[in-house]
Design a protein that fits this description.
Layout lengths: L1 H21 L7 H10 L3 E5 L2 H8 L5 E13 L2 E12 L2 H17 L10 E5 L2 E5 L1 H6 L2
Antiparallel strand pairs: 1-2, 2-3, 3-5, 4-5
Length: about 140
Amino acid sequence: MKKIISITALALVAIMSLAVFAACGPAADPDKAVEALEKHEYTAVKDGTVIPNALKILGVKGIEAVVKGSKTVKEDDKNKVETVTIVYFDSADSAKSAFDKVKDYAENNTEDDTDGDWTVKQSGKLIYWGTKAAINAAR
């Protein structure tokens, strides 16, 4: 009986851990990410040309879609732009192999002063970068 309870408890911990890790990044579907951003009052587009073409020039392959979202918020008597860019790949392997090039692109093409509130990460088939609030809004 104790063994069954221990196994059940361990299984519940594993399931909860997966749920927490899955909730950290943007939506896995580009259309759902656009919908989530718009729900949080972001201007969101599914970009089919500019970023994919720039990344293809750098040799990045396997891009399926790119979603961009932005919103200006008032913070301490100044405006701050919350932004997120999500690049969707055809496979996790494509995203993993492209991460360094995409990270360099993201770091060199960030227009806003984000005061350390900026990140670039890879999660499964997607690579995303932007401010924490914008990334959370894209879930």
